Amino acid sequence: MTDKEQTYAASGVDIRMEEDTIKSLTKKMTFKREGFGAPLTEIGHYAGLIDFGEFAIAMTTDGVGSKVLIANEMGKWNTVGIDCIAMNVNDLLAIGAEPVAFVDYLALEKHKPGFAAEIGEGLSKGAEISRMSIVGGETATLPDIIKGFDLAGTCIGFVKKENVLTGEKIKEGDVIIGLKSTGVHSNGYSLVRKIIKESPYEYQDYCPYNPKKTIGDELLTPTAIYMEVLDVIKKYEVHGLAHITGSGLLKLHRITKLGFDFTDPMEPPAIFKFLQEQGKVSDLEMYKTFNMGMGFVIIVPEDVAQYVVGMTGGKIVGKIVKSGIKVKDLVID
């Protein structure tokens, strides 16, 4: 165990600097198509929307990130394709769109027998869960750029314009329902890897809290895909949706300027406590980096909250307030 408190920034990922980079990048993207195919949202929400007549076409793009390095350490690549699809599909769901098609991008240092088949296995499973087709992709061999491999993709979905959920309907008093994560998902792995590297553990060691599972296998648990959200928005009034990914609860600023008071948060899976103890990570840093057991959020009026809980297996974790983000007495922002 390290004697020094670990942070996401110290592991090489500074969320504030990342936000500055994104602002600098998007500031130069000024041209916008008009009429059919025109953008319906500004850059910065979970998904981009374009005008397609009665419908809006939704697009997302994302990758697996440094989780692939743990896959390399374990020699196990058949789950990271699920992560790749999940990270894209969940962002589509967060705006109310249904996924229909996906294309992948696999960049390699070199080719090795059996590797691509395992990647394809995960992509196929993720597409099946998401009820969509993989319609193409690109593979690039880049030994001067890539060390190992990188996996990313782009997803397309659709939603009727009147059903788009951007968070504008969210109001004080609305109920926050959390949906369980399957673990760390696909964010914060620069910090995860730094913690494990400076701990007495290896990825091949068994978890001290679960002697039947290695730390590596636990960390490779694929990201949950929250397709049940589509069923909820078809049946009940929903005011907002959020996919909890990198920067943890800070992601909630994407959907509203109002605040979130998590009075009864989800119980984080044991892997989070293990990482926190090994890295001496503060509670604040954990909630600003990881999903902490809650991978998706549904915001609804109070009168339908219990019905949505019953439909999803989720949990009422708090309410919408005037400002700020709090988890019990911990002020996140």
Automatic annotation (TrEMBL):
Q: Does the keyword Nucleotide-binding apply?
A: yes
Residue ranges of the PurM-like C-terminal domain? 171-323
The top EC class is ligase
The domain of life is Archaea
- Choose any GO biological process term that the UniProt entry carries and state it: 'de novo' IMP biosynthetic process
> Which reaction(s) does its UniProt entry say it catalyses?
2-formamido-N(1)-(5-O-phospho-beta-D-ribosyl)acetamidine + ATP = 5-amino-1-(5-phospho-beta-D-ribosyl)imidazole + ADP + phosphate + H(+)
Per the similarity annotation, which family is this? Belongs to the AIR synthase family.
Originating species: Methanolapillus millepedarum
Q: Does this UniProt record's set of keywords contain Nucleotide-binding?
A: yes
Q: Which UniProt keywords apply?
A: ATP-binding, Cytoplasm, Ligase, Nucleotide-binding, Purine biosynthesis
Q: What is its EC number?
A: 6.3.3.1
Pfam families (alphabetical): AIRS, AIRS_C
What are the record's GO terms for cellular component?
cytosol
GO terms for molecular function, please?
ATP binding; phosphoribosylamine-glycine ligase activity; phosphoribosylformylglycinamidine cyclo-ligase activity
Question: What name appears for this protein in its UniProt entry?
Answer: Phosphoribosylformylglycinamidine cyclo-ligase
Q: Do you know which InterPro entries this protein is assigned to? A: PurM-like_C_dom, PurM-like_C_sf, PurM-like_N, PurM-like_N_sf, PurM_cligase
